[in-house]
Amino acid sequence: MSENVTNNIDGIEIKESDLTQEQRHHKNHVVSLRNKITKLQFEIDDLMPSLQFHENKLIELMKTKAEEILSEEKEIYKEAKK
Fold first, then answer.
1. 3: number of Cβ within 10 Å
2. Taking the mean position of all CA atoms in its chain, how far away is CA 51?
């Protein structure tokens, strides 16, 4: 069955039966690595919106805290000038 299987290697169709053992070994690694990269890219695409949400929330909270501190310092400055 695997004798009729073809592989697309660098744009060239090659029969599985024409590959050497070493070539099959490397072809299997290429296939495995491409599959893993595809799976990880899917996970990254799934995680990015969550990361962006939490980064934006953190920035928002930091700005709010900075504004509170500035407001308090202005009040202290006003009181000191009296």
1. 8
2. 10
Q: Which domain holds residue 76?
A: 6-81
Give the up-direction half-sphere exposure of residue 59: CA atoms within 13 A in the CB hemisphere: 6
50: in domain: yes
Do the domain assignments include residue 1? no
Contacts of 16 (CB under 8 A, 6+ apart): 2, 3, 4, 5, 6, 7, 24
Supply the pTM of this predicted model: 0.64
pLDDT in tens, 8-64: 888 889 899 999 999 999 999 999 999 999 999 999 999 999 999 999 999 999 999
Q: 48 in a domain, yes or no?
A: yes
| Domain count across the chain | 1
Q: Is the residue at 44 inside a domain?
A: yes
| Phi–psi pair at 14, nearest 5 degrees | -130, 135
